[in-house]
Amino acid sequence: MNHKITTKPIWFFKETNPPVFIASAVLMFIFILFATLLPEISKKFFNFIQSSIVENLSWVFTIGTVAFLCFVLFLLFSKYGKIRLGQPGEKPQFNYPTWFSMMFSAGMGIGLVFWSIAEPIKHYMSPPVSDVKMLAAAHQAMNVTYFHWGLHAWGVFMVVGLSLAYFSFRKGLPLTIRSCFYPLLGDKIYGPWGHCIDVFAVVGTMFGVATSLGLGSMQVNSGLNFVVDVPESKTIQIILIALITACATASVVLGLEKGISRISNFNVGVSILLVAFVFFLGPTFFIVEMFATNIKDYFSNILYFSYWSESIATTEWKSSWTTFYWGWWIAWAPFVGLFIARISKGRTIREFILGGLFAPTFATFIWLSIFGGTALHLEIFQGAPIAEAVSLNVSSALFKTLNQLPYAQITAGLSTMVIVTFFVTSSDSGSLVIDILTAGGHPNPPVNQKVFWAITEGVIASVLVLAGGLTALQTAAIASGLPFAIIMVGMCISLIKGLRSELIITNKDSS
What we know:
There is one protein chain. By secondary structure, the protein is mostly helical. The chain has helices spanning about 20-35, 40-75, 95-105, 110-125, 135-150, 150-170, 180-185, 190-230, 235-255, 255-280, 285-310, 315-320, 320-345, 350-380, 385-390, 395-400, 410-440, 445-510; strands at about 10, 15. The protein has a single domain, classed as Amino acid/polyamine transporter I. It is built from 18 helices and 2 strands. It is globular, with a radius of gyration of 22 Å.
């Protein structure tokens, strides 16, 4: 069995898998030229792609996310749970706090900060299920938000992370998406089939991360506008993308342990400080009550919410919410999955799922309850103009909410710092993953290649902001997630085949 992908130098890039590197770079270059030289046509094209997928293929996302979550839960309770993602007796590289910090930062990051207030408020203003008012609408708004950010999202990440960690660290295959298909394709993973799979993964990762970078630039701009009166404009947002991409480039050059892990620990620490600040200065008892109620409602209604958008929600609502989220999570799956796999060597499958599925979901729900609950309380009981602010500018929602609490300038500055650090961890983690994929699975590719992909991410995020703002970002996530959803189905089949073969061999050896 060949366990290595052939790599060659291209120009000044010393270690690349040429078919994947060149194809990915050319696709990115074509996209950048198209969106830059033909902005009006590109806007119409983005709108057409988004509406076509949502109207005709949203069911792929709906069925897929449910199937992926069920698959992960099956593995958790199955006989395969004891299998170690590494060699027998191998110890994890990172302790639990650092492991969780890097996983949470990569998996949610900017998006959670961006939507934690805006989404509940939008659902409160326009209830998606029925015409309800006041507290009932507030609870429904939080239930839908929990659904979009909960177990379904992390189930998607777990499928890719598990497959990569198992075939790479257990079976010694390269750390690339193609390795997940070895039980189905055999040595064909080193040929055209494998190249195509990795190119899809690179494109999905690039647009998934670029979506987050675009959202992050909008919110950092709103924070700076609130704190130091910096004007909000696309020019400022592109400058911010450039500056923070430079920070991310420095981080990824330092490497996983010296750069990414330290920044991840830092931004989780600052996030905890901000969460505690809002929790104790905001409507504490209302937050606790809403959290308890919404946790109960979430698990009671998880099956209903898993299919309701297909039968109830309008096309426009689905494109802005459920289908966008499912596409975004799947587009992010190669990035988050490979990154989680890279930091999870030595853990068992059961440990991986318990730590990677439930712990981040629980932390996400706490975050949503504190920030979303505070905003809803201010809107309903204190007449604060949070809904009006969200209608005018989604990215300003967090800062308009903090402005209603004591020490607004301090919390706004702290929030901006959180967004920036999440911004950096998303960019540096994403560029590391793309570089690993285009370097044939090399776990620590050359520095200049890391810099190249980090800069490319920043350029594409800037192009998406210019080409249509939020709509373009949502379209990029949905369009890049669709083909990878099909790849993930094959990944599940291949992983089960690999796990079954291992147990058969183990049982024969023991007998």
